[in-house]
Every structure is written in structure tokens, then in C-alpha cells.
Design goal:
Blueprint (H helix, E strand, L loop, with lengths): L1 H15 L4 H18 L9 H15 L3 H20 L9 H14 L7 H9 L4 H13 L3 H5 L6 E2 L4 E4 L8 E4 L2 H13 L18 H14 L7 H14 L4 H8 L6 H4 L5 H11 L6
Antiparallel strand pairs: 1-2, 2-3
Helix pairs in contact: 1-2, 4-5, 6-7, 7-9, 7-11
Length: 289
């Protein structure tokens, strides 16, 4: 019964962050089958071998394709990630499997090449002020998905457009800039919020938006205008592409991207913060949304 209660708590969390009914149903069904398969074994005792045995069991029942296996691993990983965050287990038994699948998928996947008009259509198709602000900020800042969802309201300087990024890849902090267009859309979204919680992007209850919710939101909006398999990280690629097309200085691009390679401190011998801002504002395109 303890495992079933844990799953129910997790499902309530998924409902809270706004996953669709079908997504929640599919996850609940998979986890219920997983609990039945585990028998008396606790989640703490679950190993990668158990995950592989479970997938083999399902494959024998359903004869599913490789893509389905990847989906199942992703759903199990989300659950075990949550267990780790809750302190219920120490390690995620799906971690290495998920990494292997991501590497394989990334090797095969082509990043969509979108025009400014395509990006504008995406932002306009977002459907809600929050989603519109998220997509616009992803494109205008080049932030990674987890950097975006970690932002707080207080991280934005509304006078200069400077955004403090406290959790860059590699554990370092950094900053990006946003333009007036992005600040206007963000201000409108925040003016509609009925909570006073710190997360910049939140659920209706004021809880910080999860990575899974952001990922699903981006993918769903992409499908609306005919772009298959759109991902949050694609906007980072587009950000870089359009800055390069507008002849933004390479060192400024590296500073804004927060790239871990190279000695970041050396860049500041060439560019002051004001100069980085000016070069960014010159090169970042307007979407007129």
C-alpha cells in the first residue's frame, strides 16, 4: 500500500503542474503496472536491472517499438527524479538508461531551422500570457530550460533588462539581457498573476513550473503550427543563429550563452557589461508580438 500511496502523491503533483489528463493517465497506468511487477520490492531497492526486466516484460506483452521504450523510460525517470528530490531514495535507477537514449536520439535528430516569422507564429500560438512570455524569453535570452524555470521575479532588473542566472551549467552564475519587447510581455503576464510567489514562471497555484511541464508546453505549441518535436533547447540554437546572422561579436554571444568552455573572466577585459548589453540590443531581432 505504501508504494500505491507514493504514486498517488506523485499523480497529484502532476495534476497541480498542469499536465493533460491523457498524460497523467498514461503515467499512472505505467506506474501501477510497475508496482505490480516489483511485488514486495521497495522503490529504494529498485535497480537498473529491474527497469530493464520490466521493459522486457512489457515488450513481451505489447510488442512495442523502440520509441515506446524511450517514452516509458522517460516517464519512469520523471517519477524516480521526484523520489530523489523528496528524499525517499538516494539514486535514480533510470539515469544511465535515459542518458543513453538521449545520446542516441540527439545523434539522429535534426534541429529545426526556423525563420523569424516561424518563431513569431510560435509565440502568437502560445495560447496564454505565461506561455507567450516563456517562448519569447527562451528565444530572446538563449537560456537553457532549467535556467529558465529556476528564474525568480527578483532576478530581473526592469530598468536595464539584465537577468541574473543563478544556476548556469557547471554550477556558476551569470547573466543575460532581454529587450523592451520581452519585458513588456513579461510584465503583462506578471500583472495577471494572483499570487506573490517568487518563481517567474509558475503554475496557477504559484508553484514553480517543472521541466516536464515546460517541455510538454513547447512541444504542444510546436505541433499547433506544424513543427514536430520542438524542444526548449531549440530556442537556444535559434538565439545563437540570429545573433550570428546579425554579426553580434562572438565573445558577446559566449558571455550571453554562459558557455563553460574557455576562460569567461577573460572576456570582460574586452567588454564591459554595458557594452555587452548594447551589442545584444543591436543584434537581437524584434518579433513584434
Amino acid at each position: 500500500m505504501e508504494k500505491e500511496k507514493t504514486i498517488e502523491t506523485y499523480i497529484r503533483r502532476l495534476e497541480l503542474i498542469g499536465l493533460s489528463k491523457s498524460s497523467i493517465y498514461n503515467r499512472k497506468r505505467l506506474l501501477s503496472r510497475f508496482v505490480d511487477f516489483l511485488g514486495d520490492k521497495d522503490f529504494k531497492e529498485t535497480t537498473e536491472a529491474d527497469i530493464l526486466d520490466f521493459l522486457a516484460y512489457l515488450e513481451g506483452k505489447e510488442r512495442f517499438k523502440k520509441g515506446t521504450r524511450a517514452i516509458y523510460i522517460s516517464r519512469l525517470k520523471g517519477f524516480f527524479d521526484w523520489l530523489v528530490k523528496q528524499g525517499k531514495i538516494n539514486n535514480n535507477p533510470t539515469e544511465d538508461l535515459a542518458k543513453a537514449i538521449r545520446r542516441t536520439a540527439d545523434d539522429k535528430r535534426e534541429i529545426p531551422e526556423l525563420s523569424l516569422n516561424d518563431i513569431r507564429r510560435l509565440v502568437l500560438a502560445a495560447g496564454s500570457p505565461r506561455n507567450k512570455a516563456m517562448l519569447l524569453l527562451l528565444f530572446k535570452s538563449g537560456l537553457r530550460a532549467r535556467e529558465l524555470i529556476s528564474l525568480n521575479r527578483s532576478d530581473i532588473d526592469w530598468k536595464t533588462g539584465k537577468v541574473i542566472v543563478r544556476r548556469r551549467k557547471g554550477g556558476k552564475s551569470g547573466f543575460v539581457f532581454i529587450d523592451d519587447e520581452t519585458m513588456r510581455v513579461l510584465r503583462f503576464y506578471l500583472s495577471l498573476r494572483i499570487d506573490n510567489e517568487e518563481p517567474l514562471f509558475a503554475t496557477n497555484g504559484g508553484n514553480r513550473l517543472s521541466y516536464e511541464a515546460l517541455w510538454l508546453t513547447v512541444k504542444t505549441i510546436g505541433k499547433k503550427i506544424g513543427i514536430k518535436d520542438l524542444r526548449p533547447h531549440d530556442f537556444r540554437h535559434l538565439f545563437t543563429t540570429f545573433l550570428q546572422r546579425n554579426r553580434c561579436h562572438p565573445e558577446v554571444i559566449r558571455i550571453l550563452r554562459g558557455d563553460s568552455n574557455g576562460n569567461m573572466s577573460s572576456y570582460y577585459t574586452h567588454f564591459t557589461e554595458d557594452e555587452v548589453r548594447a551589442e545584444y540590443l543591436r543584434a537581437i531581432p524584434k518579433l513584434y508580438v
